[in-house]
Design goal:
Shape: elongated
Number of domains: 1
Strand content: 5-15%
Radius of gyration: 20 Å
Structural class: mainly alpha
Length: 101
């Protein structure tokens, strides 16, 4: 079931009983909801479907907290290519030369 209003959308999932039983180990329903939101945020962020800020919002965390979750799951927060690294190194070298007496 999908219910939408202006601010949020409510999604109802049908899950096998054994999955629900496993989720009970998480504790209270609000903890389960938080874990599901975090998992969804991780998935959507990893798939480049949403931004870091949006993912943190879905997970109901601030940037720092969500960055910690990304790190714990081995997911890079930013795509930093070899070319970007080379440009940054070049910029640092130019800056260092400019500020040297």
């Amino acid at each position: 079931m999908l219910t939408m209003n202006h601010a949020t959308t409510r999604i109802e999932l049908n899950l096998p009983g054994d999955v629900l039983f496993a989720m009970r180990s998480f504790g209270q329903p609000d903890i389960i909801q938080q874990k599901v939101k975090t998992a969804l945020a991780l998935l959507l962020f990893q798939e480049n479907a949403i931004s870091l800020g949006k993912a943190a919002g879905i997970a109901e965390m601030n940037y720092g907290q969500f960055l910690d979750v990304l790190q714990a799951h081995g997911i890079a927060a930013y795509d930093y290519t070899v070319q970007e690294f080379a440009w940054d190194n070049e910029a640092v070298t130019v800056y260092q030369q400019a500020v040297q007496p």
